[in-house]
Amino acid sequence: MLESRRTGDRLCVHLSGEIDHCVAASLRGEIESLLRDPTVKSLWLDFSDVTFMDSSGVGMIIGRYKTMKARGGSVHACGLHPPVDRLFHLAGLHRIIAIAGGDTEHE
Fold first, then answer.
1. Domains and CATH numbers, the chain
2. pTM as predicted
C-alpha cells in the first residue's frame, strides 16, 4: 500500500492504488506511526502511482498536514496525475501543501 524512505529529517511516502474510505483509514494509521518520530520535519507524499482518490484521501492528507504543522514541519506532494491534481485544487490542498513536479527522488 505504501513504501517509505527516510533521509535526514525528510520522510518520503510513496502511495499507490486507490485511496478511498477503507484505504485512507489504513494509510492514516501507517503514516501517523512513521510520524511518531519527532525528528521528521518534512513529509513528502508521492502520488505517482495513485489511480484514484476521493474525499477520504483529502481528509487523510489534511490530518497529516496538521500533525506536521504542529511540529513546525512541512508537507509536500508530487507525482499528481490530472484527476488527483484536480481534487487537490478543488479541495484547496494546493494552498497548504507544496506541490512539486516529478518524484521525491529528484526534489
1. 2-100 (3.30.750.24)
2. 0.91
